[in-house]
Design a protein that fits this description.
This protein is an all-alpha fold and 159 residues long. The protein has six helices and no strands.
Length: 159
């Protein structure tokens, strides 16, 4: 990958990351405005929402360095991990809120749809480049574990 491609890739990742804190702040504002008791029912829900914002900002800063750093793999890995954890937290929060306010079916459907969509995305990426199979398995497994532990299990009331 040449320098121009790295810059474009870095810019797209950066732009995606910029949208997510907006979603986090909006989600927080909606919860506080409409039903603040949702934040008091569980320690995990407000904690995830609180941690999501600094993780997203850290991911933004890390990904902004990709175009000019001497060690792009280091920053790309850090940016990806902080992004994936924060993104998973957002998905989990929305799934739990759907389960609590609309119904368990809708909350679980949302969470499982996210798992399925990530698997379809990974399948297409592997079809394009077979060398990415092991990487996609690791990334998807991490994402799925985060959704199961942080979204599905709390939504069905296991903790």
């Amino acid at each position: 990958m040449d320098q121009k491609e790295k810059e474009i890739r870095s810019r797209f990742k950066f732009e995606i990351n910029i949208c997510l804190p907006t979603i986090s702040f909006t989600l927080f504002g909606i919860i506080v405005s409409l039903n603040p008791s949702l934040l008091k029912e569980s320690f995990l829900l407000p904690m995830r929402l609180t941690i999501t914002i600094p993780l997203l900002l850290s991911s933004i800063f890390a990904r902004s360095k990709l175009a000019y750093t001497q060690r792009p793999k280091l920053w790309e890995s850090y940016g990806f991990i902080t992004f994936l954890i924060s993104y998973s937290f957002l998905i989990n929060i929305l799934g739990i809120l759907l389960a609590a306010s609309v119904g368990l079916f809708f909350g679980l459907a949302f969470l499982f749809a996210n798992i399925m969509i990530s698997m379809v995305y990974s399948s297409l990426e592997v079809l394009e480049d077979k060398s990415k199979l092991f990487l996609r398995i690791k990334k998807d497994l991490f994402f799925i574990i985060l959704l199961i532990l942080g979204g599905i299990l709390p939504a069905i009331g296991l903790y």
